[in-house]
Amino acid sequence: xxxxxxxxxxxxxxxxxxxxxxxxxxxxxxxxxxxxxxxxxxxxxxxxxxxxxxxxxxxxxxxxxxxxxxxxxxxxxxxxxxxxxxxxxxxxxxxxxxxxxxxxxxxxxxxxxxxxxxxxxxxxxxxxxxxxxxxxxxxxxxxxxxxxxxxxxxxxxxxxxxxxxxxxxxxxxxxxxxxxxxxxxxxxxxxxxxxxxxxxxxxxxxxxxxxxxxxxxxxxxxxxxxxxxxxxxxxxxxxxxxxxxxxxxxxxxxxxxxxxxxxxxxxxxxxxxxxxxxxxxxxxxxxxxx
Length: 290
What we know:
Blueprint: H1 2-26, H2 32-53, H3 59-69, H4 71-84, H5 87-90, H6 96-108, H7 115-131, H8 143-166, H9 171-203, H10 205-231, H11 234-241, H12 244-258, H13 269-289
Helix pairs in contact: 1-4, 1-10, 1-11, 1-12, 2-9, 2-10, 3-8, 3-9, 4-8, 6-7, 6-8, 7-13, 9-10, 11-13
């Protein structure tokens, strides 16, 4: 069952990423809009979860709130990257988080890394290098890579702290704290973008509904993955969930071929093969690290 749930979460996230690209690129939507809607839906999910499980407030839950408050920053960087580059290139860069986690663990926690982990990190970085190759096999680093690197640094710090918290509290308690914290963390962004958000929600109700459905699916996939982790090996669940990158590439190709008005990606055979090889390298690297 946990294998099916892991793959289901990966599939849902792939659809979410494709929809994110459509919303942010084809409809000229500012990143603040989907992050706002995600924060609102997350707040409702977090409060509902909190009321059901009724956790006892503690320093660890407070830390969860603080970690959640950093989520909007990662989401903003992700959406800014999507505006600039193909979704099948951007999303796999989240795999760099796995490399940063083991680096942080070695530097900050004095953990000794195995040869297998070093090899996994090298394989992931090689895959990300292949992801930057474009037409005529030229390497074109872009600002989106800087955004994703910053997002991965924050993400890796979040993961390390969340792993520490999960040693002492239930996953749903952490989920509730993270989602509530994410809403609190968005409030400064809301203050500076409130006019844009209000105008969008007033005049772009159709796109707003698409974003709402998409971000609801996003949070649903998170809960599905938490359920999978509770029933299976966390390392294997992580590897299976990373198949999301293959699903994204497959969906991006199909949508570009049959519905190019939604998204259009580079479809040359050589580049597609290189992307597939890069994704395979990234997934293999994640397996070696975990």
